[in-house]
């Protein structure tokens, strides 16, 4: 048995040198962790804020699609009217080509239907439908990220191409600071049938974030932005802390190349390709048209 003595650890008191070695090793390990994962978000940094895309980032699916579902449930429009427009948009997405003239005509048509209706009407409908369809579709993981910024004393905004009235409902229900969204012109609370500028999509989102940061005195290099879509690369590139959340294939590739952080809260890996983003895009357009049709029917 003596030959096996080397397997038995010897009991000996720690020397001053061994204590020093242990403490140094622990400190080096902690320092390495801190350098790899600095505290974020930084507590009490009033020059920092967070900007979250909505569709498929904060909420599963498209806000306008769920809004359209609620209107369909209320029998504000017929299935064939929704299906026809959805098919047109699906073709353009699958073909990878969007005719600017066609899209402009569709946008003008929707705006003409909304013309004459009160902003409060859209807000009221949005409040009801949020409870019915949207509340249960908030991604818990992304919601926790937003809450971390709030808990750190930072402001948090949604940034979406959805109408600002709907975006504000969702932001309020989630306890966020506010929302940036597409603005339809209104006078005395009534829609004129025109947009203010263009839909808040792609580069327009980046400009909205830039403008808000200037107005609020924020340092964009200390801010964070979260999105699932490569269309939001301009917005993500503005901030010092970009995050790809449930990213589409193009954003995933871009994020990996630039060493951006990625988070994926979807259960199916196929969702990282084209399934969810494509379906959500069709749903967003279809849902928006559904809303316009519904308001048109109510006016009649």
Please tag this protein with its features.
single chain; 300 residues; alpha/beta; six-stranded parallel beta sheet; two-stranded antiparallel sheet; 11 helices; 14% strand; elongated; disordered N terminus; disordered C terminus
Strand-helix topology:
Layout: H1 16-36, E1 49-53, H2 63-73, H3 79-95, H4 100-114, H5 119-134, H6 140-151, E2 155-163, H7 164-174, E3 178-182, E4 184-187, E5 190-195, H8 203-216, E6 224-227, H9 233-236, E7 241-245, H10 249-257, E8 261-263, H11 275-299
Parallel strand pairs: 1-2, 1-6, 2-3, 6-7, 7-8
Antiparallel strand pairs: 4-5
Helix pairs in contact: 2-5, 2-11, 3-11, 4-11, 5-7
Any overview of this molecule?
The protein is built from eleven helices and eight strands. By secondary structure, it is α/β, with parallel strands linked by helices. β4 and β5 form a beta hairpin. α3 runs antiparallel to α11 (275-299). The strands form two sheets. A six-stranded parallel sheet has the order 3-2-1-6-7-8, sandwiched between helices. A two-stranded antiparallel ribbon has the order 4-5.
Unreliable segments of 5+ consecutive residues: 2-10, 91-98, 269-300
Terminal Cα separation, in Å?
A: 98 Å
Tally of individual helices: 11
3D shape: elongated
What is the structural class? alpha/beta
Strand content: 5-15%
Strands in their spatial order, largest beta sheet: 3-2-1-6-7-8
